[in-house]
Write a structure and sequence with these properties.
The protein contains 18 helices and no strands. It has 458 residues and is mainly alpha-helical. The chain has a domain of 163 residues. Helix 7 crosses helix 9, helix 10 runs antiparallel to helix 11 and helix 12 runs parallel beside helix 14.
Length: 458
């Protein structure tokens, strides 16, 4: 699937000044982590869903095939005994086994374990998204309590006095608002974000039709066993999603592996973009932290080999109305080029890099560009010129940054590393591994020594 999600750039509004509340002990900086941690938690939750699918579905498939082979073998063996010259006693045992096997066979014919698992994980992915929307709203209102004034809900004095503190009342109001938003369709939810926070055209990005189709498919699995309805076709058409010609009312939808993993990417893209769009709109002064968090996410996806996901988020970053500084803008560009190269090869990376002028940049960026363009002799020279510690590149980066993945296997890199750090790269890597092993063993020993013996209950 090649669709790339992007939310159209918007101009930031003036930041909302938080209203002081003596009952609120958290600082704005501490509250800010509510948005950042909500985004990170959401990404990891969807990733957990993916890992469950990757580990559990194949295992369930193998178990089904093993059961099928066992049943087939048992039927053939015992039927052969009945048709042979075996003793009456042997035939009675075979008949008993046949009846047992026939019951297993009937169960196998009705076994929907794999389908149930696939659908459950697919539905669970949207559970993660719904939870994220609630956490995002909670974070926004915690950071900008002035927004409570725009809720437009009237409460009587009696209702307010049911709560001992203003904080408890505000928490109850927000819980009710979050539930109200969650009960709406995704189209209605995004309209709520537009209305409450002053966005324009929040749904005009490439993956929007895909998200809507997937959410409607989720509804069909939840309520009518995946049977296509008029409502499904209507909502998909309104969102601009073109259903296949063979998808008609009464047909049954499934979740293929390709579809499932592409939707994991779409849901993650939309959630991350929504979170960062809200964050930057309401808190433009925190743009640097938002840029850093977004770049960290992209970095993680590159490490995991999720290059389409990294590419989509880099394109989103490139379309943001403002980025905190040129360093962050170039980091987004370099990571975009890394992802593009993995997907489309060297020429794809060149096209990304050509969008910026690299002639007057720091040596760290020149090194990154040389590595991406596979100019390895020049890259080695830049390594030596940068030395042990550059503005961005350090020894850890040579071991960890996905940029250097292929360069690490070149003799130019090995020679350059040894010249800069006075030690062979592989020797240093081995040292790092030994240190990690020692730390792990130390923690295990400490945990074992600190454990209390089980209490014996008389």
């Amino acid at each position: 699937m090649s669709a790339v999600a992007q939310i159209d750039p918007i101009e930031p509004i003036e930041p909302v000044e938080p209203v002081e509340d003596t009952e609120e002990l958290e600082t704005v900086e501490e509250k800010l982590h509510l948005i950042a941690s909500a985004i990170e938690r959401f990404v990891h939750n969807v990733r957990d869903i993916q890992e469950c699918a990757r580990n559990c579905v194949p295992q369930a498939s193998r178990k089904f095939l093993d059961s099928y082979e066992d049943v087939k073998s048992s039927l053939e063996e015992n039927q052969a005994i009945l048709e042979s010259d075996a003793s009456p006693e042997e035939k009675l045992v075979a008949a008993r086994e046949l009846r047992k096997t026939l019951r297993k066979s009937k169960r196998l014919q009705n076994d929907a374990t794999i389908t149930t698992l696939e659908r459950s994980l697919f539905i669970g992915m949207f559970t993660c998204f719904d939870r994220f929307v609630g956490e995002l709203l909670e974070g926004v209102y915690s950071i900008c309590p002035e927004l409570y004034k725009g809720l437009g809900v009237q409460y009587s004095a009696a209702e307010v006095l049911e709560y001992e503190t203003l904080s408890e009342f505000k928490a109850a109001v927000l819980d009710k608002e979050i539930e109200t938003v969650r009960r709406k369709s995704y189209g209605e939810q995004f309209k709520e974000f537009e209305r409450r926070f002053g966005f324009e055209s929040l749904t005009k990005f490439d993956s929007w039709p895909l998200l809507i189709e997937a959410s409607q498919r989720r509804n069909l699995f939840t309520h009518c066993n995946g049977i296509v309805s008029q409502q499904y076709l209507k909502v998909c058409a309104e969102a601009g999603y073109k259903v296949p010609e063979d998808c008609k009312i009464g047909s049954q939808l499934t979740v293929t592996a390709k579809y499932f993993y592409s939707m994991c990417r779409v849901v993650t893209e939309v959630g991350v973009m929504l979170g960062h769009t809200v964050w930057r709109k309401l808190l433009p002064d925190e743009r640097r932290k938002a840029d850093s968090e977004l770049n960290h996410l992209i970095y993680d996806f590159l490490h995991l080999g999720h290059f389409k996901m990294a590419e989509s988020l880099c394109k989103f970053a490139g379309r943001l109305p403002k980025i905190s500084d040129d360093v962050m803008a170039r980091m987004f560009t370099l990571n975009h080029a890394i992802a593009a190269k993995e997907i489309g090869g060297l020429n794809a990376a060149k096209k990304i890099l050509e969008k910026k002028d690299w002639s007057a940049v720091i040596y760290d960026f020149k090194l990154a560009k040389a590595v991406l363009l596979e100019e390895y002799v020049e890259a080695k020279g830049l390594m030596i010129r940068i030395g042990k510690e550059g503005d961005l590149v350090c020894e850890e980066a040579y071991h960890d940054w996905p940029l250097f993945k292929k360069f690490r296997e070149r003799q130019e890199f090995l020679d350059g590393y040894e010249e800069v750090y006075g030690v062979k790269y592989l020797a240093k890597l081995s040292e790092i591994v030994h240190d990690v092993q020692a730390e792990t063993e130390a923690k295990d020993i400490k945990t074992e020594a600190g454990s209390e013996p089980a209490e014996i209950v008389a």
